[in-house]
UniProtKB/TrEMBL annotation:
<protein>
    <submittedName>
        <fullName>Peptidase C39 like family</fullName>
    </submittedName>
</protein>
<dbReference type="Pfam" id="PF11814">
    <property type="entry name" value="DUF3335"/>
</dbReference>
<dbReference type="InterPro" id="IPR021770">
    <property type="entry name" value="DUF3335"/>
</dbReference>
Amino acid sequence: MKAFKPNLDLNRTLELQLWREATTIFMTAGHGGCGPHGLALAALQRGFPCEIFVNGTGVLFQDSVRSPEKREVIQLVHEDFVEQVLRHKIPLHYKLAGSAELMRSFSAGGIPLVLISTYRLTRERAPHWVIITGCDDLYFYIHDPDNSDAREGDDRINIAVLKKDFERMARYGRQGSKAVVIVYPPQNPTPLTKN
């Protein structure tokens, strides 16, 4: 969002507001994760058009909890998010956003937020969202907002990742869930993507 609104104050309050609006409530341990539908709705609420790519209609993160009650809550949250996405006419594509699609959206002025497994970055298996900050013929350049491992800010910006490696890390869980939210500048129409 700051890329499109340079004066936006990025602070903990905004971070927590976004999380509260996008959370799936539960995960294996700790606080719930953020799914693509909730993130897109939070962006739209702030005036940023977006589109969503997911590789299936399943419920993201539901397999990460064992309790039937928690699974039911995640299911309800997911269904509500999907209903809101459809009501707000956010383009929802049930297909992969591969390298060509990510490059297309980036060229069209969008900023892709991509769900990854942190394993290739931190050796921990956790879902995590990164931002694509650039691309060329061989690499995607990503920004990793996670500062929990004490890396300096400069070490988390424009990290070069070979496209073939990025495609392997851009999935989460045993099911290989893939999700991308592409955020566009305010007042710009979302480019039409063929489903």
